[in-house]
Write a structure and sequence with these properties.
327 residues; alpha/beta; seven-stranded mixed beta sheet; 9 helices
Length: 327
């Protein structure tokens, strides 16, 4: 049995998303050892890297490689924004890329339990149990236009991809609200990126999430349709590429209910955030998640927060769950 989470964060992220699960796992194991508990199966602690995909663009990169769902060849070829491949980054850090690949521990992983700070305001108790992870994906929208002089080019003569992108961002916001889903353009690259120049290229990355696969697909289709229609009016081009798509994860109800009983009826709730637990669940490992209350709901921000008493309640809850599962 393995418990843990990830250590990385997003750019300008907070202190709890990921590390709370790793620290709580170590604390829970220490608590069981102090009690003199002897598990019937080994308990391991996992600390995964690049779960956010902030540098190399692939969410849950560490757990995907460990689970064997992403080949070492594809992982090592991934590049960061500066064009540095993962293989080169590992070498620079003194790590041999030849060691990248599926973890042999996967064959011994009977259960995976991840504790994570909640990333919304749905949890009113200190600790809750996850029911599912929404399907989600990252999509690259490449808008092509014609570079020109900002001062001399008539407005009606422009082929400005920034206008097409701007309308697409507004369309994403509207369509997500109508669908009860989530759509975010959080990263944009502009060329030539000059104050006095009409752009020739705008590349934007859409993060889209929904409660079910059909809603996610319809959301993406609606956003793309409006983007194409606007591109035709602007005289620009559009190419949409799915960089990563994660299906819905429904955690096993038997395991989930077992955790709820161990925790005296802890509340159950879904999450719109992706997690390493989703990767292991898709790989066929019986998987469960615990959430620690977030009083503000703010996440992926320095303002991310969880009360110390709730964090300690999370450690107690995780220790109780591990103790029950490792009898």
């Amino acid at each position: 049995m393995v418990t843990g989470s990830h250590l990385d964060s997003v750019i300008d992220g907070g202190a709890f998303d990921g590390p709370l699960g790793v620290v709580s796992a170590l604390a829970a194991v220490d608590q069981l050892r102090a009690e003199g508990f002897e598990p019937g199966v080994p308990i391991g602690v996992g600390a995964f890297v690049e779960e956010e995909g902030s540098r190399f663009g692939m969410p849950c990169l560490g757990s995907r490689v460990a689970a064997g769902v992403l080949s070492a060849e594809k992982a090592l070829a991934l590049q960061d924004r500066a064009g540095v491949p993962l293989a080169a980054a590992l070498e620079q850090a003194g790590i041999d890329p030849a060691g990248v690949g599926p973890s042999p521990l996967m064959q011994r992983m009977g259960t995976f339990v991840e504790l994570h700070v909640e990333q919304g305001r749905g949890l009113t108790a200190p600790v809750g149990v996850a029911s599912s992870i929404w399907p989600h994906g990252r999509f690259r929208f490449a808008f092509g236009g014609e570079a020109n002089h900002a001062g001399t080019t008539l407005m009606e003569d422009r082929h400005d991809p920034m206008l097409t992108y701007a309308m697409t961002a507004l369309a994403a916001n509207k369509q997500a609200r109508l669908a009860g889903a989530r759509a975010t353009f959080g990263r944009v690259s502009v060329e030539p990126n000059g104050t006095n120049a009409v752009p020739s290229q705008v590349t934007a990355w859409l993060d889209a999430r929904a409660a079910d696969t059909e809603t996610l697909e319809l959301l993406l289709a609606a956003i793309t349709k409006q983007a194409i229609e606007r591109a035709e009016r602007d005289g620009t081009t559009l190419e949409v590429t799915a960089e990563s798509v994660s299906p819905i994860v429904n955690f096993p109800t038997g395991l989930r209910d077992r955790l709820v009983n161990v925790l005296d009826g802890a509340p159950v709730l879904p999450t719109g955030a992706g997690h390493d637990a989703g990767v292991f669940s898709d790989a066929g490992i019986p998987t469960a998640m615990l959430f620690v209350r977030n009083p503000t709901g703010i996440s992926h921000s320095p303002a991310e927060y969880a009360e110390q008493d709730d964090c300690l309640a999370g450690v107690d809850a995780l220790a109780a769950v591990l103790k029950d599962l490792a009898k």
